[in-house]
């Protein structure tokens, strides 16, 4: 097996094949929870304030299924090239834990809303396929908080009842790099379809890894371990790498790999508990939620409401001949990618199109990475960018001034000319005015002028800077430089 990072095993890498499957939990982007009207976003709220009798599992309460959550789950299934079920139902998964007040979780067992699918995952200059087993809806549990140095834990049920979609893959990944690439692909597919905010930092997307190793050439899977709650692509890769090495080392030492659930502490995996079998949960149909019938008309309606899928956007950008690095920069944000597509379709001048794409994939990307940037303020349009490009091509703005104007345009619908005029950035094209300033600078700096006549190249840069300073940056430095050389080398 080829490893992506150095293994903690001394076994030859080709002796073993790793098999990795991923269970991905995404929080569906609904306004309210899955079975009640409580807010689905409690990040800024005090503990146990966005709860109701349904969240708390009080006797006599009945769940009411969130229609929007069902639609988002269907959209996610389409983005996975998966089958959307015609008939689906909910089940009770019974277990006891402090953050589960009902004593059971409402989930889906044998009739999930999404069936088999397949995802093509790009990796470097190639791609590989990962088969999707299923994707099912379920409610999230609450959260346990463990105060430092305390002998007790606190329970916060704000998260209880949050709508989740769990996407289960086949063990079709065979290296940490493939696991990371698949996790990233899921992230972008869910982001583009709008099923989730996929906010990794706040846990809106979490990954559980199922890892096993087997002797190379064997078709019998090894004993798998599950690694819980990865919240970054980097952790997915590092945890997979460590666990593969750990299992290889056990086998090389003549020991057995045991089926268990493990955690990840940024450095290594650690034992959490022995793995329970499915029958331990005593699944049975949820009696308070009728089965769902998703007929063809409903599925077609959901398909019609879909935004452009990631696969379509990526294919369209590639068809234009755009460099792969620029494609990746654009698709990181759906709205930026849509803007890029519009630019490529509507801007016909090749030089202008290239200039705008360079802005989008460099300066605009840098501006969007600011921690306090709010996408609700994003205001860039093709018309603005085209006008800014024309002003740059006509030497009304130098590159530095164009970037200043672009920085304002990202969050302002105003025209670039209006912004440039307000900031006094437009370069003068009055030849007489420029020549007058140049003559004055030469007169005020006789030694530098003589240095230019004597062939000292650094002096021309100094004089150009003095002209730019005198004109408050509103002259074209190349025109100034050419004029200085012409006057001083006569």
Can you characterise this structure?
This protein has helices spanning 53-56, 67-79, 176-193, 233-252, 296-304, 310-319, 324-331, 334-346, 350-368, 382-393, 399-409, 416-422, 431-444, 446-453, 457-470, 477-488, and strands at residues 16-27, 87-88, 91-94, 104-107, 117-123, 126-139, 143-145, 154-156, 163-169, 205-215, 225-230, 260-264, 269-274, 284-285, 292-293. With 490 residues, the chain is an alpha+beta fold. It has three domains: 13-298, no CATH class; 308-422, no CATH class; 431-488, Arc Repressor Mutant, subunit A. The strands form four sheets. Strands 5-6-9-1-10-11-12-13 form an eight-stranded mixed sheet. α6 runs parallel beside α8 (334-346) and α7 crosses α9 (350-368). The radius of gyration is 30 Å and the shape is elongated.
Mean of residue pLDDT? 90
Classify the beta-strand content into a percent band.
15-25%
Gross morphology is elongated
- Major sheet: 8 strands, mixed
Total helical segments: 16
Number of domains: 3
Please state the CA-atom Rg, rounded to the nearest Å. Answer: 30 Å
The N- and C-terminal alpha carbons lie at a distance of 72 Å
What is the oligomeric state here? Answer: single chain
The share of residues in helices is: 25-40%
Structural category is: alpha+beta
Low-confidence stretches: 2-11
What order do the strands of the largest sheet run in, or round the barrel if closed? 5-6-9-1-10-11-12-13
User: How many strand elements?
Assistant: 15
Summarize the structure.
With 490 residues, the chain is α+β, with helices and mostly antiparallel strands. The chain contains 16 helices and 15 strands.
